[in-house]
Design a protein that fits this description.
Radius of gyration: 52 Å
Helix content: 55-70%
Order of helices and strands: HHHHEEEHEHE
Largest sheet: 5 strands, mixed
CATH architecture of the largest domain: 2-Layer Sandwich
Strand content: 5-15%
Oligomer: single chain
Number of domains: 3
CATH topology of the largest domain: Nucleotidyltransferase, domain 5
Length: about 270
C-alpha cells in the first residue's frame, strides 16, 4: 500500500489560541475593573453612611440635650411656681393674721375699756342675789385693774393683748362651768360636754372619762372653773376634785401634757 503523509498548518491554530487567551485576559481585566469599581463604590457608600450616621448621632445628642434642658427649665419653672404659690400663701396667711390681730385688738380694747361699772357689778352678783358674791375689796380690785390697764401706753397694751393671744395659741383653755341646776358644762375648743357630779370622786371620774374622749390636747391645758348660783356642795366637789383629775390626766399623758386649773369663781354661763 502506498503511504499518505498528513500535513497540518499550526500557524492558524496558534493564532486562534492566542485570540482565545487574549479574549479571556480581557474578560478577566474587565471583571477586575468592575470589581474594583464596585469595591470603591462600596467604600464610598460606607464612608457616606458613616458620615450620615455621625450626623444622625449628633442630631440625636442635640435633641437629647434640648429635651434635657427643656425638662430642667420645666422643673425650674415648677419650682419657681411653687415658691410663688408658697409666697402668696404666706402673704395671705400674714394678711389674715394681721386682720385677725386688728379685729382681736378691737374686740379686746372694746371689752376692756368700754365696760361700765354696772356690768362689772352684774358679773360679780349672782342672779336674784341682793348683794355681790365677792367682797367690796375684791370688787374694787377688779375696778382698779381696769383703770390700770386703761392708763398703760398703747404699745404696752398692744403687746400685752398680743402676748395673751399667742399664749392661747400654745395652750388649751378649757372652760368648766356649773349652772344653778348643778350641771357641769365643759367647753374644750369646739367640744362641749355636760355631766353631773356630787362628790369629788365622781367629779374626777366623769371629767377624766370626758378627757379621754377629747382630741389630743396641746402641751399645756388650763381648766378654768366658774359657777353660777350653784349649790355649795357641788362647787366643793369640783374644787376638791380638780387636783385629783388633773394629776390623773397628767399621768395618763405620760407627763407630756401639763394640766393646770384655776378657780375663777362666780361667772355668768359662757355664751354659745
Amino acid at each position: 500500500m502506498k503511504r499518505r503523509r498528513l500535513t497540518m498548518q499550526l500557524t492558524p491554530l496558534l493564532d486562534l489560541l492566542l485570540i482565545v487567551i487574549f479574549a479571556q485576559f480581557m474578560d478577566v481585566r474587565e471583571r477586575e475593573a468592575t470589581t474594583m469599581d464596585e469595591a470603591v463604590q462600596a467604600v464610598e457608600q460606607q464612608a457616606e453612611a458613616e458620615v450620615e450616621l455621625a450626623a444622625l448621632q449628633l442630631a440625636h445628642q442635640q435633641l437629647v440635650d434640648t429635651l434635657a434642658q427643656a425638662d430642667a427649665d420645666r422643673k425650674d419653672l415648677e419650682s419657681r411656681n411653687d415658691q410663688l404659690q408658697q409666697l402668696a400663701s404666706q402673704l395671705r396667711v400674714d394678711l389674715e393674721r394681721t386682720s385677725a390681730q386688728q379685729q382681736l385688738l378691737g374686740d379686746l380694747v372694746t371689752e376692756l375699756f368700754q365696760v361700765p361699772r354696772s356690768a362689772i357689778s352684774d358679773v360679780l352678783t349672782p342672779p336674784g342675789a341682793a348683794t355681790p358674791a365677792v367682797s367690796a375689796e375684791q370688787r374694787e380690785h377688779l375696778a382698779a385693774r381696769f383703770r390700770e390697764l386703761s392708763l398703760q401706753s398703747t404699745g404696752r397694751m398692744i403687746r400685752h393683748l398680743l402676748s395673751f393671744d399667742e399664749m392661747k395659741k400654745r395652750c388649751d383653755l378649757w372652760e368648766l362651768h356649773i349652772d344653778e341646776t348643778g350641771w357641769f358644762t365643759l367647753r374644750a375648743g369646739s367640744e362641749v360636754r355636760e355631766f353631773r357630779a356630787n362628790t369629788p370622786e365622781e367629779f374626777a371620774d366623769r371629767l377624766f372619762a370626758i378627757y379621754k374622749s377629747l382630741p389630743e390636747p396641746k402641751s399645756l391645758v388650763v381648766i378654768m372653773l366658774s359657777y353660777g348660783d350653784a349649790r355649795a356642795d357641788v362647787r366643793e366637789a369640783a374644787i376638791q376634785g380638780l387636783p385629783r383629775v388633773t394629776e390623773r390626766m397628767r399621768q395618763h399623758a405620760g407627763g407630756l401634757v401639763r394640766f393646770e386649773y384655776a378657780v375663777i369663781g362666780f361667772q355668768p354661763p359662757p355664751e354659745g
